[in-house]
Amino acid sequence: MPAETTSSFAMPAELSGKDVERKRSLRRMRTLATSLLVVAAIVFVLTRDGEGWVAYVNATSEAAMVGAIADWFAVTALFRHPLGIPIPHTAIIPRRKESLGESLQDFVVDNFLQPEVVRERLMAVGVADRAASWLLEPGHAERLVRAGSRIAAHGLDRISDDDVEALVRDVMVPKLSAEPMGPAVGQMVSEIVRDGAHTGLVDLVAEELHRWLVSNEAEVAQIVEQRAPWWTPQWVDDRVATRLHLEAVRWVAEIRDDPNHRARAAFDHWLAQLSEDLQSDPPV
What we know:
Layout: H1 17-46, H2 53-79, H3 92-112, H4 115-125, H5 127-136, H6 140-157, H7 161-178, H8 181-195, H9 199-215, H10 217-227, H11 234-257, H12 262-280
Helix pairs in contact: 1-2, 8-12, 9-11, 10-11
């Protein structure tokens, strides 16, 4: 039996519905254009030797034929040689597709992908404002958190503990040990103090500390009793604990409510001094 042979030509992929409709429309337009050209040619031949208004019809049909042929030649010359004749300056796209691609690339990069252009367009769009407005709508923030937590959990599940340990031990620790971190940390602390970015944290700590002191008077009394000398009477310890608790609550409330409190100023001064020391002290 003869050996079975397989075709070396792959079957073309089936066209989608839109592609079929486009192909049908293109065929209709070609038929219409060719028919109009034939009609113009027939009119031109029939009115060739006419006079008067017939001459005007002849000139019109002649102009229609010339225009149709010129349009056909111009469009065809972009993609191939008309009638297969290698006329100069035809088949432009196949011959110069690399140059055209580079020109298009340069145009896109210069007009759309430059940092200044992207920054200006993003500022005009107001991405941050739109994102904030979207998050403020009920349910959006919760949906984002749920989706983010699922993605994060899926990603963390795919990371083994051994890989994390190896990354920290072999990459991060040697890198951090080799780099002088003091100046960088000092510069960061300096910028935080300069911009006042730490005030929110101070407010939060003061608020939480005040809430804890108000709600845990017994805890304060117990601490005072544990630290008091063994020979002091109980009533003295109680009075000291009460007084100490009241003063602590009042002092923390003042820090919380007064942005210019001396304790805040002292903390700012300490941070500024720490920043200066980190940037100026030589590495150990």
